[in-house]
Every structure is written in structure tokens, then in C-alpha cells.
Amino acid sequence: MARGRLFSGRGQSEVPDIINFADINSSWVDIQAGIVTSIRSGHVGPDYVEILNIPKNSVAVRPIARLSVQDRLVYDTLVFSIANLIDSELHESVYSARWSKKGKSFWSPVNSWVSMQKRGVAIINTAPFQLARTDITSFYEHIDVSTLGIDIESVGADRYIVERLITYLRMFQTSSHAWGIPQGPDASAILANLYLLPVDEFIRRSGMHYLRYSDDMMLFDTESETLRDALLEINSILRSRRLSMSSTKTGIYNHSQSLSQLEDLEKDAINYSIKIRESGATERLYKLFTESTEEPQRDRDVKFSLFRMGRLKDDRAIHWVIRNLKDSHHLASNLLHYLECFPERYTAVGRSYESTMRMAAGHKYDHLEQRVLQAATRQKISSKEIRDLAWDILNNKNKSNLPREFAARYLGRVSTVADGQLLRREFEDESNTNVRRALLVAMYEARSISRPLLKSLANSDSQLSWVSRYLLTDPLIPLPR
């Protein structure tokens, strides 16, 4: 299960890999044996964790934990082994990280979110309900590992699993400036559900209608005082578990305001009209897009619109996307995937990448730079200006590693003879394992790598042994997703 989640691409959207873990797949037998040995011996837990600041909006970020592949798979395997125990304790009002009835897969996150929104609309329409909404400040970061350990044991998890999970999480906290549990992996979402069981149980006993997706909670009642009392009690429960409500995201909304807190029903109508190819469907979609880009920008509607406009080959958003790549850098993945739907605009798209990289240079736009380099590599856009900027990123060791890795991959794809020689020099001077791995791939694609070097690394205990063995097979390396 853990392997399937890794190779299916789930979870790679925030921490993508330069070659989609093709080297891990080719050495899977050895890697699997190492994971089994780690779990059996109890030597679990990451020695090193890189924290990536992924944009939430144009200013704020959230810390995503980047684990090594083996550490990630150990963690997922331990948590997935008790996922069915946790899921059996959850009420039907919880929609996040739900395990399938057969215990072999997750519900689709997007479908689960949409289903929760629809359920909320249905509840509001049955009576003059008011809505209380809240979430938790820095939820994953403030989960107390000791309390979580007691929770895991209480659901009937084997002591063997409990001990290894707690050992893992304690090492996670001491291996970096992170705390709580790792943000990013599916496994953490399962543990987060377990941690909020006391809140779920309180609301279940109150008899209120209730919906929850991770820490996003919605309560429904006809009386605002009842909702206020419930929020105060929830706050008390959260504080007992070292958590606190977000003051800026907690509020009570009257009946007429409640629907606006949920997904707009217009989206359902647009989806249906597109499905049946109704006349005017594309105009309704474009209207939603233009309205969503007005101030204040509605990011969720922008993503909804661009995804569907791209599939419909509606190019009317191209100029807005090109103009706003930097200002809406937190939506970079969505904006860039939209542009990729129009290969006939190759030249204009390439120029937009150049200008975006140029504007981002010298500022803290690591995520945007990584995404643009990833897209330029995937689209095979060759640009001297992007190449020069990629060299600047690769040489800047003050940057986070992910954009440096994608800079190396891009350079390997568009390299000159001189670039290949300089990549070898960079490899010799680089200390970070992930960047060295990317440089090996770049040197291979630049035809500037020696087989003796690869053979030496392949036969070593180095973390570069997997990628070296893979490159020795003379593969056609996949483009990054």
C-alpha cells in the first residue's frame, strides 16, 4: 500500500521528484528489504528532515516535511497497518483521510471534500440552520506525541507498532526544527483524525449536525447560543490536547450567510452543463473565472475554473495566467498545468517562464522557481535565459534543495558541452545528497558521466547507490510529473 501511494504520484504534488522515483522502482527489492529490516529491528525514524515552506497564499506558508524515500515508506507502513483500527472509530461526519471498507485504499480527497460540502448544503436546506465554523492553528505542528501515543494504544494497536511509531515521531522532532507530526504524508492525516476523536465524540453526543475535514469543522444548529456554547467546549477540549482554535477562522453565520461559507452551487451546475455539453456551459465557466480573479481573489474558484478551461481547450485565461504567475505564485502548479494544455502557444509560454524567473531572481520564490523549472523540463522548453537562471539557482546553496534539484534536471536536458563539464564540478563540490542525486541525473542526460563513477557508487553504501544502479541500465529517464 505504501509503495503504491508513492509510485502512483499521490502526495508528489507538493514534493515532486525529478525522475518520479524511477530509481526507487528499479531497486525496489533491496529497498523493501531495508524497510522490513528497519521495522523489525526498531531502528526507525528519520536522521534528517528537510522542511519546505509551501505557499498557502501570496504571503503565508506552511511547513511540509520532506522525508527520504525509505523514511517515508517506513512511516506510511507503520500507520497504514493500523489505519483500519482508526477508521472504525470515526463517525460518518468525518470526511478526511478515510480508509476504504476493504482496508486497501483511501477515499479520493477531492471527492471527499466535495461530498462534505454538498452534505453541508443539504443540512442547511432542511431547516433554518445557522453555521459555526472553526479550525486549528498550526494543527499538525502542535500535536503532542506523548498524547498521540496513548491514543494509538487505545484503539487496540499492537504494542510493537505503538513503540515504533512513537520512536519515529520523536526522532522526527529531534532531526530538524520541526515539531508535532510530519505535514504532507497521508499517514499523518490518519493520525490527525485519531487525535481529534474527543472533539468528534463531544459533538456526536450533543446531537448537533457536524462535518469535519481534518481540522476544518462545521457545526449546524438553529440557535446561535447553542453553537457558541459548543465552540467554547471544543476550545476547552482542544486546549487539553495542546491545541488552540484559529481566532481568525472561527465564526458563527446566520442562515443566509451559511451557504456562502460552503462551495457555490453554481459549480455543480457548471459541471453538469459541461458534462451534457449544454449550450453556454463554457461561457458560464469563463464568467466564474473572471469573477474569481477580481479582488479579493477567490483561489478555490480560480483552480476550479482553470482545470476545466484547460480540459476544454479554452485559451481565454492565458493572458491572465501569464501576467499573474509571480503574484499568484501559491497557485503555480494550477497555472502552469493550464498553460501546458496549449502546446501551440509554446513560444509565448516560454517567454512567460523567462520573465517569471527573471522577476523571481534574488527574492524568496523558491517554490515558484521549482515549479517553473519543472514545467519547462516537462515541456522541453529550451531557453538560454532560463538556463543561465537555473545555473544561478543551482549555485546558490542558501536556497532550499528542491529548486536546486530541478535546476540541475533542467540543465541536464538543455546542456551544452561546457555545461556538462561544469555539472561534474558541481557534483564534486556538492554536499547535499538530494542535489548530488539530481546532478548525477543531469550529468547522465548531458552525456558527461563516467561509468566507473556510477559503478563505484552503485557498489557502495552511499544513498546514491540506487540512482547509480538505475543509470547504469542506460534508461530513458521519465520527465517529472
Considering the chains and any ligands shown, give keywords for the structure.
481 residues, alpha+beta, two-stranded antiparallel sheet, 25 helices, Recombinase, RT_dom, GrpII_Intron_Splice-Mob/Def
Can you describe this structure?
- Pfam families: RVT_1 (PF00078).
- Residues 35-274 form the Reverse transcriptase domain.
- This is Recombinase.
- The protein is 57% helix and 6% strand.
- The protein has a domain at 42-260: RNA-directed RNA polymerase lambda-3, CATH 3.90.1850.
- The protein has a 4-stranded antiparallel sheet with strand order 4-5-3-6, sandwiched between helices. A two-stranded antiparallel ribbon has the order 1-2.
- It is globular, with a radius of gyration of 24 Å.
- The protein contains 25 helices and 6 strands.
- The two termini are 21 Å apart.
- It is of the alpha+beta class.
- β4 and β5 (216-221) form a beta hairpin.
